[in-house]
Amino acid sequence: MLAKDLKPGGIVKHGDAPVIVETITVQSPSARGGTTLYKFRARNLVTKQKVDLVCKGTDNLPEADFEKRAVTLMYSDVDQVHLLDAENYEQYSLPVADIADEMQYVTESLEGMLALIYNDQCVGLQLPASVTLEIIECDPGIKGNSATSRNKPAKLSTGVYVQVPEYLKQGESIKVDTRTGAFLGRA
Fold first, then answer.
1. 25, 68, 143, 151: which one has the fewest Cβ atoms less than 10 Å from its Cβ?
2. Domain residues for 119?
3. What are phi and psi of 28, to 5 degrees?
4. Segment holding 102, helix H or strand E
5. What are the strands of the beta sheet with 151-156, ordered from one edge?
């Protein structure tokens, strides 16, 4: 895969392990004949360490040899999150600390979750781009208070706080971007 075609969430091989790209910075050349540099901040899926990669746009990065399997949440305890493979009913366990960011958006009925399997072990969890969650706690909006739109914090059904427009009320369902944690709209 060419470096210029890689997007956040893409998984490539670096060294001997797969890494998932979290952020991309593009540095344009300042002189004629210069090449555009792509700086990737990635996380090693096996060791969970951050990795920085700098590549030219035409550099070829090998795709990681791993599998994505559709899973559902079975249950979570203090140390582990237990997932069930939707196809063959195999169970996978991941440490809570390794996927704490993803667990902010996971509910029992969430569809579209993928377990990342490398060497027959579950090394990560990939969520859909957006999820629908219910607002369980927020301040009431006051009508006519401002000519411009304002935001307020709202606690969602999973316990995560998101900034939402002032007109939303408790009990409404909203869509949230799982990559940035931003409010996308009403569900």
1. 143
2. 67-126
3. -80, 150
4. helix 100-103
5. 161-165, 151-156, 130-138, 173-177, 183-186
Q: Are 63 and 13 in contact (CB under 8 A)?
A: yes
Q: How is 19-88 classified by DSSP, letter by letter?
A: EEEEEEEEE--SSTT---EEEEEEEETTT--EEEEEEETT-B-PBP--EEEEEEEEEE-SSEEEEEETTT
Residue 62: inside a domain, yes or no?
A: no
Asked whether residue 61 is domain-assigned, the answer is: no
Q: Tokens representing 118?
A: 């490398």
Q: Are residues 135 and 164 in the same domain?
A: yes
pTM of the model: 0.74
Residue 142: CB atoms within 10 Å: 9
Specify whether 143 is located in the same domain as 177.
yes
